[in-house]
């Protein structure tokens, strides 16, 4: 599959472009903190989404299957 100019990847119809910069020092620490906050937000969203989905289905989902349900 040939990608359009300036596009690094296509997934499910979404085009993705990467811009990679290497930074260190104070700027690197700021970038690392921003990335950690973004990953934390994503994981919290995912956990809430899965919990909501499980409740909508009327069960404890995978947690119950694994013996982790309260």
From the alpha-carbon coordinates, what is the Rg to the nearest angstrom? 19 Å
Structural class by helix and strand composition: mainly alpha
End-to-end Cα distance: 48 Å
Average pLDDT over all residues: 83
Strand line-up of the largest beta sheet? 1-2
Q: Which regions are unreliable across 5 or more consecutive residues at pLDDT < 50?
A: none
Percent range for β-strand residues: 5-15%
Helix content: 40-55%
**Largest sheet: number of strands, sense, barrel closure:** 2 strands, antiparallel
Specify the overall morphology. Answer: flat
Fill in the keyword field for this structure.
70 residues; mainly alpha; two-stranded antiparallel ribbon; flat
């Amino acid at each position: 599959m040939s990608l359009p100019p300036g596009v690094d990847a296509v997934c499910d119809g979404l085009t993705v472009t990467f811009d990679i910069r290497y930074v260190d020092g104070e700027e690197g620490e700021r970038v690392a903190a921003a990335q950690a906050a973004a990953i934390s937000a994503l994981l919290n969203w995912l956990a809430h989404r899965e919990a909501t989905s499980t409740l909508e289905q009327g069960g404890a989902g995978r947690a119950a299957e694994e013996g982790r349900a309260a």
